[in-house]
């Protein structure tokens, strides 16, 4: 895997402000992409997630203006919640004075932060960096989970049954009884599960699944 | 009103209603029955009387007949005729008198010397010899001898051949020869014959005549009537020497019929007619009751309607006396109907006329009574409630015309307008409040827009600047970076200019308003803001005193942007009222004073009785965004000063000394209309004052 390149998405109807923010971010060596409206940003998301998943490849965060013509920042925020994106793409709201209460409400619903205009610029960039770090963290966890999912997908049905019982800590003999197969067969399945999941022990397997948030399923 | 007591009273009521009728019909029936009965009785009595009379007539007929016979018999003996002569005469007599059936001459021993039988009958004594039944004749003759005159025997039955018989009666006459009893003459009557021959034929046709014995045994009978009808019976005793005959007469009239009798028919007819009349009467009464009930219903309905009306109703007669008021009217004026009805207007005006207006109302009444029609759309006037409160009413009048088409008075519908007035006032106040709010909202909107418009360039400037500084701090600045920084600085300049344009547009807007200036009378200005000021004052129970120049001083006119100056006045009065929140309510007085101080200037003063302004506050009072109020923005006073200064005037304030009542006085000046009468004749010095209490509630 190559070194991830963090991206800051700017959604603001004011061209000058987008340009100024991009300039500011660039001065701190951060890449940014600007969108003039919530609709344009959504279109980009649709386009880049043709593979069926919205999971971005690289860490990212969103600087979102609350008040815009067309879809408002809050509406876009709601759509992102629906898509399950705000964890991996933290949202920082940019607001005028009047929007502060709504921005606060948005934070309570999961937005990363809100910044009042005019803002203290470097402090804003600091927040952006923190958001990107959070994004990277979440992304990594997601990618692990995805990998585990992919590996699980390779298992046959019988192997999955065996795996479930193995995680529960049952000895091979009992597994054989439960599934009505020979102990020998259980051992073979077990070896193939470990091999496919790329683990060495049942404990490691359980940790892997728990890490991917799958253990309890 | 009757309490709910169902069924029982209704039943008794019904009983009470029905009872007289039952009694009437009962009495009528009894009376009629009695009448018919009496009539029938009377008829019977009459009939009986008739029968009695007939009987008497019949009896006397018989007696007369017998008397005649006796005379005829005695004539046979006249001059002691020889035997042949006597026989001839007797036969002659028997032919003439059919009732007589036999005449015999007897000697003293009762032996028959000679006899003659009636030619109308077969010989009688065939079945029985005459001597066998001679006893009765002997008794009669004995009696005759004793009486020295004719005597009758008891009747006796003589059987005849064929099972029949005949009842006979003998009469014995003593025969005297030269004054000495020489023998007897016995004549026999057939009782039957006596009846048929002696009694008038007419009587015989309609009655049954009979001789009866004491025990009722019928001896002979004549006449015929239908059997069983003889109800009217009369008996007469026919006294004869030696015996008495009992004559019985049965009337053929029978029981009197109900109808054929005229009197009965009349009585019956009248009774029927009476019944019919009673029936008609009942029907009429019932109809009348139904009509009365309907009328009562209609009346109740009308009354309920009048009582439920919110409109007051009042009727007056032609002299102006009140003849009717409905509850709504009473409630409106607070007087009971009894206190109003019958009031004469000339010397005793109705109590709801305000005393100060009685003359005017009386005049109006005179006009009305003179017959002039009131306006159809009604007229507005003032009435007084019992508690002395005056209230506006709308009166609609119409002539009252009775059933005969006569004009009997006037009907008025009275509407209480005070509620409507209050509602109008309220709606006006709300409207003004709304306007003020709208004005404030516009200011807020503008402020918000301005802040946004300024925010954008300022944010951009800030970002470009920070970014540039970041780059310059990063270390060596190469040529490319330098170009980039220059570009950023150019943008900073652009954005700064943009912010400047926003500011300039605001200024232009303010300047544009200068063209809106007009000359306006200060009282109009004050009047325009008064409702809003009062609204505010009413909430805090503050009195507003308005002090304007009074004639002959002219009312000053000022040249200003009306809306903005109104805003200033509102702001200052609001501040003043708010400053007095801690003051005792009786001292909460806000004074608005306007004076023409110099030829060119008119000074407005807003004076409160509050605690005054502290020195440290006073220093920053006109600083924008400085405020002592929790919800204030700190723009009010600074805006006021800006507005006044834009008009070329001055806004100052001073704390008044406690001797002058304390509090704060805000004064501002506005230019007066050049060339106006007020500005020419402005005089310094204390102007006339008018203290006008704002009505607070």
Q: Could you give a short account of the major beta sheet of chain A?
A: 5 strands, parallel
Under CATH, the homologous superfamily of the largest domain in chain B reads PAS domain
Number of beta strands of chain B:
23
Give the uncertain stretches of chain B in residue-range form: 1-7, 678-697
Gyration radius from CA atoms of chain B, angstroms: 71 Å
Give the CATH architecture of the largest domain in chain B: 2-Layer Sandwich
Strand content of chain A: 5-15%
The sequence of SSEs of chain A as H and E is: EHEHEHEHEHHHHH
Estimate percent helicity of chain B: 40-55%
What best-fitting shape of chain B do the alpha-carbon axes yield?
Answer: rod-shaped
Let me know the average pLDDT of chain B. 80
Mean pLDDT of chain A: 83
Class from secondary-structure proportions of chain B: alpha+beta
Molecular structure report:
The complex is a heterodimer of chains A (217) and B (697). Chain A has two domains: 7-141, Response regulator (Rossmann fold); 155-212, Winged helix-like DNA-binding domain superfamily/Winged helix DNA-binding domain (Arc Repressor Mutant, subunit A), CATH 1.10.10. Chain A contains nine helices and five strands, in the order βαβαβαβαβααααα. Chain A has helices at residues 15-27, 38-48, 73-83, 100-108, 121-154, 157-167, 172-179, 183-197, 202-211, and strands at residues 7-11, 31-35, 60-65, 91-95, 113-116. A five-stranded parallel beta sheet of chain A has the order 2-1-3-4-5, sandwiched between helices. In chain A, helix 6 (157-167) packs across helix 8 (183-197) and helix 7 (172-179) packs across helix 8 (183-197). With 697 residues, chain B is α+β, with helices and mostly antiparallel strands. Helices cover 47% and strands 22% of the residues of chain B. In chain B, strands 1, 2, 3, 4, 5 and 6 form a six-stranded antiparallel beta sheet that branches. Chain B has a six-stranded mixed beta sheet with strand order 21-22-20-19-17-23. In chain B, helix 1 (8-76) runs antiparallel to helix 6 and helix 13 (562-579) runs antiparallel to helix 15 (636-646). The longest helix of chain B has 69 residues, at 8-76. Residues 1-7 and 678-697 of chain B have low confidence and may be disordered. Chains A and B meet through helix 1 of A and helix 10 and helix 11 of B. Chain A: InterPro entries: CheY-like_superfamily, Sig_transdc_resp-reg_C-effctor, Sig_transdc_resp-reg_receiver, Tscrpt_reg_LuxR_C, WH-like_DNA-bd_sf. Chain A: Residues 148-213 form the HTH luxR-type domain. Chain A: The modification 4-aspartylphosphate is found at residue 65. Chain A: Keywords: DNA-binding, Kinase, Phosphoprotein, Transcription, Transcription regulation, Transferase.
